[in-house]
Design brief:
Low-confidence stretches: 1-16
Number of domains: 1
CATH superfamily: Alpha/Beta hydrolase fold, catalytic domain
Strand order of the largest sheet: 1-2-3-5-4-6-7-8-9
Structural class: alpha/beta
CATH topology: Rossmann fold
Number of strands: 9
Mean pLDDT: 94
Radius of gyration: 18 Å
Largest sheet: 9 strands, mixed
Distance between the termini: 37 Å
Length: 298
């Protein structure tokens, strides 16, 4: 297995690795694929790295710099495109279990050891599976805008959600309607978020394709088959967990975050007002500070 750092276009030098917008694209070989990742932040703080797992159809550039830079003040932050996503090679798995196995291969390839894990949406599914499959690999767990396996109302998204989430061509206006509420404050926050994630001009990630969409939709359906017995699995996730959601998440259903927190043995729950699936992008500083306090033992 090998790792290589991305280069700044036109300079021939490695990009600085201290902020989200400047961090180099790096690559590591795992079994049958090469994964693209970025690693930046305070590596001298002595804290465990924070590994971040992205949402449906998202790539490295969809992480909010305002959020991940705030998290990187206390520790290294690692963002990764899983197999077949964005600039990573290979075929996207159509199930969460294989996605989790690739995350574990990635951790092994980088020698990350125990990590703190932040999973957003689909990434939250994967984070739960990683914690179950290899419990000693995860110190603390942040589960944002996600749901437990077998939870209600996520197997078959509503017509409104599928129309906004699964279009062939990604449309910022549909994204705003899905990730933010209709309030003036939320829509203003959406515009600021879109400006932040398009600020990077060098070494941008590859966009996700329709094959990624279709495989991830299959993974969502498999995870979301209604089965209350699957909730019992959560008793095995004994690490401290911070569960967070917007108060009007129509994609993952806010009540499923409450369900998740109720069934995890050691969880705290926070619901953010006037927000939807993208609450963490609407409140990046506030959510970032809550995550930092949690990871630092507060």
């Amino acid at each position: 297995m090998s790792t290589t750092a991305g280069m700044t276009a036109g300079t021939g030098t490695e990009a600085p690795a201290d902020t989200a917008l400047a961090a180099a694209n790096r690559r590591v070989d795992i079994e049958g694929a090469t994964l693209v990742y970025r690693r930046f932040g305070n590596g001298d703080a002595g804290a465990r790295p924070l590994l971040c797992l992205q949402h449906f159809r998202g790539n490295l550039d969809n992480w909010d710099p305002a959020l991940v830079d705030r998290l990187a003040a206390d520790r290294e932050v690692v963002l990764v495109d899983n197999r077949g996503v964005g600039g990573s090679t290979g075929a996207v798995p159509d199930n969460v279990e294989d996605m989790a196995r690739d995350v574990l291969r990635f951790m092994d390839a980088l020698g990350l050891g125990p990590v703190d894990l932040l999973g957003f949406s689909l990434g939250g599914y994967v984070a739960q599976e990683v914690a179950l499959v290899r419990p000693r690999a995860v110190r603390r767990l942040v589960l944002a805008g996600t749901a437990p396996r077998g939870a209600p109302r996520i197997h078959r998204w509503s017509d409104d959600v599928i129309e906004l989430a699964a279009q062939d061509v990604l449309d910022p206006n549909r994204f705003i309607r899905l990730f933010f509420t209709g309030s003036e404050d939320s829509r203003a926050a959406a515009m600021r978020f879109l400006k932040r994630i398009t600020a990077r001009t060098v070494d941008r990630d590859e966009p996700t394709d329709l094959a990624t969409r279709d495989a991830q939709l299959d993974a969502f359906a498999r995870w979301g088959m209604p089965d209350p017995s699957k909730l019992a699995r959560l008793q095995a996730i004994t690490q401290p967990a911070f569960v967070a959601a917007g108060d009007n998440d129509t994609m993952m259903i806010t009540e499923n975050s409450r369900l998740l927190a109720e069934h995890l043995p050691n969880a705290q729950l926070r619901i953010y007002p006037d927000s939807a699936h993208g609450f963490l992008d609407q409140y990046p500083e506030q959510f970032g500070d809550h995550v930092r306090a949690f990871l630092n033992g507060g």
